[in-house]
Design goal:
The complex is a heterodimer of chains A (about 120) and B (about 625).
Chain A lengths: L4 E5 L3 H12 L4 E5 L2 H11 L3 E5 L7 H10 L8 E5 L4 H9 L4 E4 L4 H11 L5
Parallel strand pairs in A: 1-2, 1-3, 3-4, 4-5
Chain B lengths: L1 H21 L3 E6 L4 E4 L1 H7 L3 H4 L11 H8 L15 E7 L5 E11 L5 E10 L1 H36 L8 H31 L8 E3 L1 H18 L3 E5 L7 E3 L1 H18 L5 E9 L2 E8 L6 H4 L12 H6 L5 H11 L3 E6 L5 E8 L18 E5 L3 H13 L3 E5 L2 H11 L3 E5 L7 H10 L8 E5 L4 H6 L4 E4 L4 H13 L4 E5 L3 H13 L3 E5 L2 H10 L4 E5 L7 H10 L8 E5 L8 H4 L4 E4 L4 H17 L1
Chain lengths: ~120, ~625
């Protein structure tokens, strides 16, 4: 039984539904927010096992959010996957530099997303 | 008669005045003593002065803005005596304000009817609104890119879910139709990427990161990505890539993009069981890449339009294969901007041969530098203008370098040979010999060819500079920080580079300080992944590696490093606070040394010295 909790930080309702559906099918618990600052709050109280972070968001962007998560004692060890609509090498480098565990370019296939999460959390099918 | 002539002269003068007042550029004329003789109303506006206040004066008495002042004075061609020697120099100045004014300044010498120098003319073009439009355009593109991709993400995501069976069973016909939706969605994504790419390249907003690269590395990387696909399609791959080819001055990622595009095209159009040949060769001053396939070939009629935008060969086969019709056009732009050519040789039904050429960089260029003691950094400053040389000298002496100067090419060559400086800065606007010729002379001379040369120039021509063996290229007016940093980077190469990988930030800080003091150059990474990224940027001489880290642990890093021929030879010192994992001893055997935390820094330093010394003597 998979009891992992995923925090999704994304501002597009359709994509939130997409990710929720994909992950809930595998019994992940998904918490979603569309705001980077709220995400930091939720991350430190809810203690998710992994954070999915979109780059283009209002208030503070994904990179900034990631930097703050990695600076915070309570959240720094939670692995982060960055989701970005830009896929240049520059973006991937930037994601790894701010401490992300992985990078997924949009558009992505739900299966790819699920497999990456399962790999990072070492979940066997 | 005399009166008529005078009246006519007055008429011409009035006419000139009207013309000069009506154009949008600002114009200022100086006499040979650098005193202002004329300015038009636009110049009055930009300089914020009245004509009456400045005519007959030197500008430094009136103008306070230093940057503007130096732009107005930076002209030193009083000896210009013929029209052929007429030089037009351009530079850009940014004036503070809201918004800041961006000016392009053009300098033209004024010659009388006997071709004698009588002064010079400065023309100012206001680029502020042009740049603002550029900025808006780029912002627009980036927004559009994001806004187009967001709905496409939803389409792809939900279609994939249904196709994967996650939303319940679907019939074969539903599957077929959804596959079509998916395929076209993927095409649209590719098209958006290509359109953005080409609009960036064509508007000149792509900034290439030009550096000396080995094209064979790029080609090997691309081939590696396609190997599996080729095997699946049962395509035979033949490569002819000689070792030790010359380097080219290029943007590695962009050239990689071109190679990727050409090889993937070859793969796309070659039927199963076919053959693809990839080769690299030096030919004269060029390096030539070719990929030959046994695909359908392209008619000579179609070849003419092949590299133009949105052109796609019209045949039943290509219809099926799909594509945006932009790939080759992007390749052409990239190669042309690198000073190269791209072409095709093909016949219908006979397969195609796509090739591109890139100019070779001069050999013996700046990789290996002479050893020198820290305090003994001698820099030769070559500039025909003593004032300009003095500015550079001041910058360098402030950093503790000792400076020698040369003001003409012959003297420069002689001093470079005799004094063997550690580095040379070269202004390419020289009188007797073109700076590029001097650079070539330096690179052809056994005694001077390994001395790194940084070009300082008003003209933006990095490609030419790097191609001819320059180690750096800065545009004037010289940015002091940039110059110092470039010199640091070039001369710093003799320092041994250590990559320190540990997630304990305090320890990283401590070791960085301690090892820097011992004359090492330290780069750090806080986990295995960061280490891999850092390694791709620059190869260190030694790696200090912690084992327990988040994201990717030390064992994984070691395994990764030892697998690649590029990194397998770098000595690794493992540092750990825990007992070594018994099951991983075979991995640890691959490393050079292990050291248990806590350890005295002296012990670590001596281990490092010993390892690097051993490596040097090999």
């Amino acid at each position: 039984m998979n009891n992992n909790k995923i925090l999704l930080v994304e501002d597009e309702p359709d994509i939130i539904r997409l990710v929720k559906f994909t992950l809930e099918q595998r019994n992940f618990e998904v918490v979603a927010t569309s705001n980077g600052l709220a995400a930091i709050e939720i991350a430190s109280t809810e203690k998710p096992d992994l954070i999915l972070l979109d780059v283009m968001m209002p208030v503070i962007n994904g990179y900034e959010t990631c930097v703050r998560l990695k600076k915070n004692e309570k959240t720094k060890s939670i692995p982060v996957i960055i989701l970005s609509a830009k896929a240049q090498k520059k973006e991937v480098d930037r994601a790894l530099r701010v401490g992300a565990a992985d990078f997924i370019a949009k558009p992505f296939s739900p299966r790819e997303l699920r497999e990456k999460i399962e790999k990072i959390l070492s979940i066997k099918n | 008669m005399k009166k008529a002539k005078e009246a006519f002269g007055k008429l011409i003068e009035d006419l000139m005045e009207t013309i000069l007042s009506s154009i949008s550029d600002a114009i200022i004329a100086f006499d040979r003593d650098e005193k202002v003789v004329y300015l038009n109303p636009q110049a009055e506006r930009i300089l914020k002065v009245k004509k009456a206040e400045i005519v007959g004066q030197k500008v430094e008495e009136i103008i306070e803005n230093q940057e503007l002042l130096s732009a107005l004075q930076s002209f030193d061609h009083k000896e210009v005596s013929t029209k052929e020697e007429r030089l037009e120099l351009t530079q850009e100045v940014i004036l503070p304000g809201e918004p800041p004014t961006i000016l392009r300044i053009l300098t033209t010498p004024l010659l009388d009817k006997d071709q004698k120098y009588v002064g010079y003319l400065k023309t100012f073009q206001d680029l502020t609104s042009e740049r603002e439009i550029d900025r808006l355009k780029s912002e627009f593109l980036s927004t559009v890119s994001h806004d187009l991709r967001t709905p496409l993400t939803s389409i792809k995501g939900y279609v994939d879910l249904i196709l994967d069976g996650d939303a319940g069973e679907i019939s074969d016909i539903q599957r077929e139709f959804l596959e079509i939706v998916k395929h076209n969605n993927d095409r649209l994504v590719k098209l958006i990427n290509d359109v953005l790419d080409i609009s960036k390249i064509e508007s000149g907003r792509v900034h290439f990161r030009i550096e000396p690269i080995q094209l064979e590395d790029v080609v090997h990387d691309v081939i590696d990505t396609f190997k599996n696909l080729m095997a699946q399609k049962k395509i035979r791959l033949i490569t002819d890539i000689p070792q030790a080819l010359g380097s080219v001055a290029a943007d590695q990622d962009r050239i990689g993009q071109v190679v990727m595009n050409l090889v993937s095209n070859a793969l796309k159009y070659t039927p199963a069981g076919g053959k693809i040949e990839v080769s690299l060769k030096e030919e004269g001053h060029r390096l030539i890449f070719s990929v030959i396939d046994t695909g359908i070939g392209i008619s000579s009629e179609d070849q003419k339009y092949l590299f133009t935008r949105f052109f796609r060969v019209d045949s039943s086969l290509t219809q099926e294969v799909g594509g945006s019709g932009l790939g080759l056009s992007i390749c052409k732009s990239i190669i042309n901007l690198h000073g190269g050519e791209i072409w095709i040789e093909s016949e219908l039904g006979q397969g195609s041969n796509f090739s591109f050429s890139l100019p070779l960089a001069v050999k013996g260029a700046p990789s290996k530098l002479k050893k020198f003691a820290e305090h003994d950094r001698k820099i030769l400053v070559i500039d025909s203008d003593p004032d300009a040389a003095r500015i550079v000298q001041r910058y360098l002496e402030k950093e503790g370098h000792s400076v020698i100067k040369a003001f003409d090419a012959a003297e420069a060559l002689k001093v470079a040979r005799e004094e063997e400086p550690n580095l040379i800065t070269l202004d390419i606007m020289m009188e007797e010999m073109d700076g590029f010729e001097l650079l070539q002379a330096l690179k052809n001379d056994e005694n001077t060819k390994n001395i790194p040369v940084i070009i300082l120039s008003i003209v933006t021509d990095e490609h030419k500079g790097y191609r001819m063996g320059a180690a750096g290229y800065l545009t004037k007016p010289v940015n002091q920080q940039k110059l110092v940093r470039d010199i640091e980077n070039l001369l710093g190469q003799t320092k041994k580079r250590i990559l320190l990988v540990d997630d304990d930030r305090d320890l990283v800080k401590l070791l960085t300080l301690a090892l820097k003091r011992r004359g090492f150059k330290i780069e750090h990474a806080y986990n295995g992944l960061e280490a891999i990224v850092a390694l791709k940027r620059k190869t260190p001489d030694l790696i200090l590696l912690d084992l327990r880290m988040p994201e990717m642990d030390g064992y994984q890093v070691i395994e990764k490093l030892k697998k690649s021929p590029k990194t397998s030879q770098i000595p690794i010192i493992v540092m750990t606070a825990y007992h070594f994992d018994e099951t991983k001893t075979d991995v640890l055997k691959l490393t050079a040394e292990q050291i248990s935390k806590p350890f005295p820094v002296e012990i670590l330093a001596s281990k490092i010295q010993e390892l690097l010394g051993r490596k040097l003597s090999e």
